[in-house]
Amino acid sequence: MTDIAGAIARLKSELPSNVKVVAVSKFHPAEAVMEAYNAGQRVFGESRPQELHVKASMLPDDISWHFIGHLQTNKLKMVLPYADLVESVDSGHLLEAISDWGVSHDRTVDVLLEMHIASEDTKQGFFGEGILQIVRNASAYPGVRISGLMGMATFTDDEAVIRNDFSRLVSLRDGIKADIERYPGLPADFGILSFGMTHDYRIAVEMGADIVRIGTLIFGERTY
Ligand SMILES: *Cc1c(COP(=O)(O)O)cnc(C)c1O
Question: What CATH number should be reported for the domain holding residue 162?
């Protein structure tokens, strides 16, 4: 059995208080979420619409859910009523659909744009130019609030590669912030960065991550 409460306590003492830890509970049962909840954790990440829907419906209301997986537009109704932040917007088509949902439900949906920073081409996300196209055109999406960027580094033990991946995310964010007046559709405080997982969160925090998404370290290995 994984010591969920112990892992949360260690993370809390290790990380600066301004870094938000998303406990990634995908594939773990509701009991595991409750164990983390009872240890004080309130922010959880899920990557499958159905699983988020089921857990959010049965677990305490003061949990803040982040959606972190690939989202298809026909699954929005299982995600958007529950998610405080959709971290994984990876296409203009999806952004538009979320914005339309927000407008029709009288809500502004908080989102991050996912940048493809890994060298594996399996990981989703925009390339830098695609993100710039979106942020230039951000006013076209009135039902969303684009708060920042998310990314996943190459899965490797080579720290230099991880740092290089993360640095592209940081540079893109810094560049957008420096030119923020060119992007009137962005919120003035645009710039949240979500990067870093179990195997690379220390590097991420050192490089300025605002959000780290940690699953295995808290809940143990996932059984697929
Ligand atoms: C699963 C997942 C995580 C957590 O991964 P761990 O290695 O278990 O910490 C973080 N981010 C995303 C997008 C994920 O899908």
Answer: 3.20.20.10
